[in-house]
């Protein structure tokens, strides 16, 4: 150990300068992604400011942000965000639970897959929005039907993701479990679960994306609060700034919740030897 | 003692992979199984491991019939098959999860040191070279102290230098507890370096063709004329095993071994 020390020190110097360079580029990378939208926004701001356009149908960023600030000040923004987040959260939770359980059953037992999967695939072929009238008849026009719609949207990608992940677990790794005589439950916990986790996280993210899509659909159909209601209200009252404000907030919330899943899963996926990791993306 | 009695395997598609293979293997013996491709070497090994069931015939270890994976039988595959989500140390401790944590840690640490990877305990499998990964696989198989260790072409994916290194290392580890080793290989050199006895198989259907005792003391000198002699006799036997005009020998010892036709 002691004899190693000077060697280590020697080699750490060029490594450090290389580290500084990569640290710089690590900070530069997100900035690079912001370049295009910021230039476009500033450009449009300039166009409206200089009088080339009145910006009535396409309001400049300053007016959109002013709208957001107004909504925030009156406390309305928070109310709308809370309503939408609540619906997405609840629908996502139901969809994930159902998708995970049924996906796991279909993936693990081939008999269950033969019984269950054709039906699920047939239901999947129905455009989910086609359920809306039925859900409203069955569940009323209030929260239940909205949450059900979101849950349906989340269910399918999660179900498919879990089932596909289980079916594609490497036989060779399962055999390692068998040689160590893992029981059914231990096999699930120690081999299958960690093996499917990367694909599961991806399916959760896809599911969440669909959840955000369907909450808009649900709130456009009939709601008195929520970001989707802001969209509709903006359209009916001719307030494009309010529509854009709601869109911006959708973008922020969508990105934020997606990032939360990513961050929550990251500690469990550090082992991955993947293309994306090598690129540092 | 591991006894194989007329072990046969016919796959559902009708391919007869293994026909009435019989052998008796003493505790602590090192056996190399060699033969042309499709001679049922791996099929035989999987039957002994209890991963596949023989269509007929029996595998018994100390008079206990083997039909599913057994605690006293370990296996090392051609690929390391490490679990990518476990650190090197956790991979090695995979088979002894039922032991108390302190004892497990102790055994893992000793095994890590024994295979020369003490500094890699917390590394991920992806960070290992092919040779290091296979050493982890060997440690993982040896930590539960099996009485029989099966090796399915364990070094065939490695470069020549690493392969030699690991062969010596394997012998070194074997000397600790002297488990029975059954090694499937393509490599005549490897068979003669490691084995007390080389079983030559012939294909279609896979069956025992010849056995050659390697009466050389260890450590073996790969350059000695005696070593060369043994290599030549294994090679000759292999050549004959692939020649359709050569009849099966009936001189093989052991009960039920001959008369397969």
TrEMBL record, chain A:
Occurrences of domain ABC transmembrane type-1 (ranges): 81-261
Membrane topology: Multi-pass membrane protein
Swiss-Prot/TrEMBL keywords: Cell membrane, Membrane, Transmembrane, Transmembrane helix, Transport
InterPro entries the record matches: MetI-like, MetI-like_sf
Localization: Cell membrane
Cellular component, GO annotation: plasma membrane
Role description: Probably part of an ABC transporter complex. Probably responsible for the translocation of the substrate across the membrane.
Protein name in UniProt: ABC transporter permease
Species of provenance: Bradyrhizobium zhengyangense
High-level lineage: Bacteria, Pseudomonadati, Pseudomonadota, Alphaproteobacteria, Hyphomicrobiales
TrEMBL record, chain B:
Domain ABC transporter stretches: 2-228
Stored Gene3D superfamilies: P-loop containing nucleotide triphosphate hydrolases
UniProt xrefs under PROSITE patterns: ABC_TRANSPORTER_1 (PS00211), ABC_TRANSPORTER_2 (PS50893)
UniProt-listed SMART domains: AAA
Coiled coil: none
Leader sequence segment: none
GO molecular function: ATP binding; ATP hydrolysis activity
Keywords, ordered alphabetically: ATP-binding, Nucleotide-binding, Transport
SUPFAM superfamilies documented for this protein: P-loop containing nucleoside triphosphate hydrolases
CDD domains the UniProt entry points to: ABC_NrtD_SsuB_transporters
InterPro entries on file: AAA+_ATPase, ABC_transporter-like_ATP-bd, ABC_transporter-like_CS, ABC_transporter_ATP-bind, P-loop_NTPase
Pfam families: ABC_tran
Family under the similarity heading: Belongs to the ABC transporter superfamily.
Function: Involved in beta-(1-->2)glucan export. Transmembrane domains (TMD) form a pore in the inner membrane and the ATP-binding domain (NBD) is responsible for energy generation.
PANTHER family associated with the record: ALIPHATIC SULFONATES IMPORT ATP-BINDING PROTEIN SSUB 2, TAURINE IMPORT ATP-BINDING PROTEIN-RELATED
Record-given protein name: ABC transporter ATP-binding protein
């Amino acid at each position: 150990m002691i004899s190693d020390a000077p060697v280590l020190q020697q080699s750490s110097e060029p490594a450090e300068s290389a580290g500084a360079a990569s640290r710089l580029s690590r900070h530069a990378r997100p900035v690079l992604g912001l370049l295009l939208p910021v230039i476009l926004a500033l450009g449009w701001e300039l166009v409206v400011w200089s009088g080339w356009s009145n910006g009535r149908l396409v309001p400049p960023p300053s007016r959109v942000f002013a709208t957001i600030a107004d909504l925030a000040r009156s406390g309305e923004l928070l109310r709308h965000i809370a309503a939408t987040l609540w619906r997405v959260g609840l629908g996502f939770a139901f969809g994930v639970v159902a998708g995970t359980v049924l996906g796991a059953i279909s993936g693990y037992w081939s008999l269950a897959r033969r019984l269950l999967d054709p039906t699920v695939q047939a239901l999947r072929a129905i455009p989910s929005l086609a359920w809306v009238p039925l859900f409203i008849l069955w569940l009323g026009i209030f929260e239940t039907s909205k949450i059900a719609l979101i849950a349906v949207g989340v269910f399918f990608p999660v179900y498919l993701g879990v089932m596909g992940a289980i079916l594609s677990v490497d036989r060779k790794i399962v055999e390692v479990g068998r040689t160590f005589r893992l029981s059914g439950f231990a096999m699930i916990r120690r081999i299958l679960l960690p093996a499917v986790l990367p694909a599961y996280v991806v399916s959760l993210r896809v599911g969440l994306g669909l959840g955000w899509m369907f909450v808009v659909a649900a709130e456009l159909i009939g709601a008195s609060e929520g970001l989707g209601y802001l969209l509709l209200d903006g359209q009916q009252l001719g307030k494009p700034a309010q529509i854009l404000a709601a869109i911006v907030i959708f973008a922020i919330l969508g990105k934020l919740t997606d990032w939360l899943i990513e961050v929550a899963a990251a500690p469990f996926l550090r082992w991955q030897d993947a293309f994306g990791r090598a690129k540092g993306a | 003692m591991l006894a194989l009695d007329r072990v046969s395997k016919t796959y559902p598609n009708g391919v007869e992979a293994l026909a009435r293979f019989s052998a008796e293997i003493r505790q602590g013996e090192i056996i190399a199984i060699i033969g042309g491709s499709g001679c049922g070497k791996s099929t035989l090994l999987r039957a002994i491991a209890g991963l596949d069931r023989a269509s007929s015939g029996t595998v018994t270890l100390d008079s206990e019939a083997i039909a599913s994976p057994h605690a006293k039988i370990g296996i090392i595959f051609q690929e390391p098959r490490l679990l990518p989500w476990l650190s090197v140390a956790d991979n090695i401790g995979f088979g002894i999860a039922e032991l108390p944590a302190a004892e497990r840690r102790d055994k893992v640490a000793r095994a890590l040191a024994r295979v020369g990877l003490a500094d890699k305990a917390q590394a991920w499998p992806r960070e290992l070279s092919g040779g290091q990964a296979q050493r982890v696989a060997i440690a993982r198989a040896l930590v539960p102290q099996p009485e029989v260790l099966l090796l399915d072409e364990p070094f065939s994916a490695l470069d020549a230098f690493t392969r030699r290194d690991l062969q010596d290392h394997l012998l070194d580890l074997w000397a600790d507890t002297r488990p029975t080793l059954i090694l499937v290989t393509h490599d005549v050199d490897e068979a003669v370096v490691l084995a007390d006895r080389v079983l030559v198989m012939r294909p279609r259907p896979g069956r025992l063709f010849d056995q050659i005792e390697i009466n050389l003391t260890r450590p073996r000198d790969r350059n000695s004329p005696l070593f060369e002699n043994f290599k030549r006799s294994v090679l000759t036997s292999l050549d004959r095993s692939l020649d359709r005009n050569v009849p099966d020998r009936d001189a093989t010892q052991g009960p039920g071994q001959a008369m397969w036709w």
